[in-house]
Amino acid sequence: MHRDYVQQPRIHQFPLADLKRRAAATAIDFGLAWLISSLGSGLFGGAIFWAWIIFLLAWYLLRVLWVTNNQGQSPGHWALDMKVVQEKSGRLPSWEGLVRREASLGFACSLLIIALNNSASYGVLLFLLTIPIGFDLWIASTDREWGQTMHDRWGKTVIINTTRGYSLDLKIKQWLKEFQARSRS
After folding, report:
1. Regarding beta strands 82-86 and 157-161, do their DSSP bridges make them parallel or antiparallel, or are they unpaired?
2. How many Cα neighbours within 13 Å face the side chain of 158?
3. DSSP assignment of the chain
4. Tell me: the pLDDT tens digits for 111-145?
């Protein structure tokens, strides 16, 4: 007799990070990589091609090499107390898994760089080149169980909350609360 294969449901073993905080952490990493590419491309006369190449290299450094040497945290994830782990084991993803994960997101973000650099001339380009990132976020918003983006699925990873980091989001909330209290007095 043959048994039908029944897929076992995945069990949440880790405190998953919410999509807003994950997007904010990615925005921090994006800003750092964009700053590096802007400064680096200046050495090459500001050519867009070099800005694109330098951005991809900076993305790789921040989102793969940095993560492998910093317990699963990129600068953005560290700032917001999150880290990337393998979805089943909860361990740091392999180098290959991180490269697979970040290649798609890095390419989508590099398209966004091109769009932002040319938005004054070609407004429709800004819309078209942001579609891959929007699609990635939409995938995560429809995944009710794990909240995985497409690049998380390709890398077989999840983003979890951790106690290791700077807690920038909590500090900003506290600063805003203090500012509101002072402005009322």
Report:
1. antiparallel
2. 21
3. --PPP-PPPPP--S-BPPHHHHHHHHHHHHHHHHHHHHHHHHTTTT-HHHHHHHHHHHHHIIIIIHHHHTTT--HHHHHTTEEEEETTT-SPPPHHHHHHHHHHHHHHHHHHHHHHHTTTT-HHHHHHHTHHHHHHHHHHHH-TTT---HHHHHHTEEEEE-S-S--HHHHHHHHHHHHHHHHH-
4. 888 887 776 677 777 788 889 999 999 999 999 88
pLDDT in tens, 1-52: 444 444 444 545 779 999 999 999 999 999 999 999 989 887 877 777 888 8
pTM, to two decimals: 0.85
Cβ atoms of 97 and 63 within 8 Å: the answer is no
- Given a contact cutoff of 8 angstroms between Cβ atoms, the answer to whether 58 and 50 are in contact is no
Amino acid present at 120:
A
